[in-house]
Amino acid sequence: MQSLTRNYFTLFNLPEACELDQESLSAEYRRQQGEVHPDRFANAEEPEKLRAVQLSSYLNEAYETLKSPLRRAAYLLSLRDIDVEQVNQNDLSMDLLLEQIQLREKLDELPKDESALATLDALRSEVNAKLEKQEKNFAKFFDLENFNEAKKVYHELQFLYKLSAEIDAGEEIRLGY
Amino acid sequence: MALLQIQEPGGKQAKPLHRRAVGIDLGTTNSLVAASCGTGVETLPDSTGQHLLPSVVHYAKGKPPLVGGEAKALLVDDPLNTIASVKRLLGKSLSELKAKQDYLPFEFDEARADGAPAILTEAGSKDVVQISADILGALVARAEASLKGALEGAVITVPAYFNDAQRQQTKDAAQLAGLNVLRLLNEPTAAAVAYGLDSNDQGNVVVFDLGGGTFDVSLLSLKNGVFEVLATGGDTSLGGDDIDHAIAEWIAAQLQEPAGVAVPSMAKLRQLANAAKHELSDKTQATILINQFSALLEESTLKQLTADMIRRTITSCRRVLRDAGLTVAEIDNIVMVGGSTRMPLVRDAVAEFFGKAPLTDIDPDKVVAIGAGIQADMLIGNKSPDSFLLLDVNPLSLGIETMGELVEKIIPRNTTIPVAKAQEFTTFKDGQTVMSLHVVQGERELVSDCRSLARFELRDIPSMVAGAAKIRVSFQVDADGLLSVSAEELSTGKKAEIQVKPSYGLESSVIEEMLQDSQSHAKIDMEARSIKEAQLEATQLLDAIANALLVDGNLLSPEEADSLAESIKALETTMTTGSSVQIHAATEELNQVSSEFAAKRMDLHIANALRGESIDAMEKSTD
User: Fold this and answer.
1) Which domains does chain A have, with CATH numbers?
2) Which ipTM score applies to this complex?
3) Interface test with A, best of B384, B476, B478, B526 (most A CBs within 10 A)
4) For the segment A53-93, what is each residue's pLDDT rounded down to a tens digit?
5) Cα angle A75, A19, A99; round to 5
6) Are residues B564 and B577 in the same domain?
7) SS3 state at B176
8) What three-state secondary structure class fits B388?
9) What does DSSP assign to residue B445?
């Protein structure tokens, strides 16, 4: 762990793939943090301290990227020179947009008190099922090197994760957190 | 003695047996210092056997400051020169403190140019960093006497919710006291370290810290000697003082009802309330005596009085679990910190929620200092370097102001530190050469609802069309949780940098409000954000059309020009008053109406371009 530009998968000794062993990832992350963390250089000279902050930050960023399925997907595409920030019109089908609008409307129309909690749970299950399906789809297209299709699925995953976060926020408000 | 320093030529230098490092809990009410003494890390007592040092400083002319119990005794008689609870003043500006309703018995130094709060005492003007340094100085003297030698390093604990300014001032105070700061450590993390090491545990630990004035809850995962903070939360306006207050009000109500006994001062009532609370720690009822009047406080009454406060602590626990994505069943241990966790009612509520009894073996007042002492011992090198590692998180989101007063979060809260993140921004106007950057801290979507940390400017950006410049803004948070920000224009490499060190910080109550607001206002924020975005979109379209009209306005028939002007006016009105949906609709409408105009312009420009090209082609062919 000497370079700040290494491929995140190589960094953690993991195969460059959609499926990822979370246990190995976090074990290797903890092991490497044990070596580079600024706490290991509390008595060192300034340049060494600075380098420790940089290496440790890099390791944190790499870990966060691979840990999250969505960020991992974007990272995998970026390794294939696909820029997910660039959204093309035909990346998003009309059906997908309509479905998202319907789901969102459902969320907006719910009553603002605890009576909505059961519906929120149902909505969450629905979104989770879609997420699971689309994560599999992403892996399928990615493995087939059909990156255009993979990118489309990525955008759908983005919608679904955002919706999922909004369901959580909606639940928190109704629970009075 | 000099003979001892002679070394055998070529011989190995004797390894120092033990380097002196301490952990310091710099508390609002009391402070403690802990160090490794042979068997384990313990808090160090003063010469009279007291471990807790009251965080009170008294200043007298021509004398060194008096710190601790003796200073505390002077609080009533000499309030102007006796300063307590200085921790509450850290990271705040004078104007901020004065705006608060709380009565502060000091005279502030108005002559300070930097706006930092300083208190006028007999011994001169003393700022909060100086006062904190004097408390630390007393602890250092105690430790050096006890450890028989100069200290080589210290770990100082801070509340998890301390913001950048508060952390920075704590560090400044330690440096002023001559300490080598090995690390600023979050208090709950320190508490977990105090419990976690001996047992070599694996699993998830909740740290429940109910102090005098604040409540903190953190969730840590412990695996192979690595502590990873998964989430933190809490309530900075909830603590033992609130419980005392509730009991005091209950006593006052009892006095008025039947007997009509004169109600003593609130201070006296609080004292009685506090005593009754302590009595109820091992009894089921407490008797309160005032003159000829007596009242009986039953445990069941106390339960009613504190029900709401205890419920709020449990709500925070639930929230932290959710942030970390864990369930109650996945929590292996609960660590209790802070004097208020001695209350059986609190312990019972915690045990009930988590389905297991919390850990209470270590004195809840000392556990933070002990954890800091263990960390200091490791950082200074007394322990094998791979014995354990702390991976902490930043407690509040850090972001930057973007167009339309929106906050773009760069580092979300609960991100493991140290962390570096960069984001690219661009210019909004043609020929823009200056970009001002506004760094904010908080969870809300609008800049006005977050806390401003710093402003700086990136100048001499090469003049380009809007959207062409690429400005990379980088945030770096170090392992102490301190932020620095830099900005760079990528095509020229022009740089601007700032170490965020504001002269004021967030008030803890403000942080709490901001956190709570971000939840309850999530909905409003979303709409506010949508409106801002819709307005931005509308402005861009209006600007584009206005520019096009200037150049090619003559392409339009009078009817077309009228209908376009009408739509422009409609959008301008809707923009200021409408909802996001209405603004979108009006923008869309204008888009439709102007499409004919756009098509005409396109034709004209294509025709011009083709003309140009054909001439060009002809010239080429004649060559």
Assistant:
1) 8-67 (1.10.287.110), 89-175 (1.20.1280.20)
2) 0.83
3) B478
4) 999 999 999 999 999 999 999 999 999 998 888 777 677 77
5) 70
6) yes
7) helix
8) coil
9) S
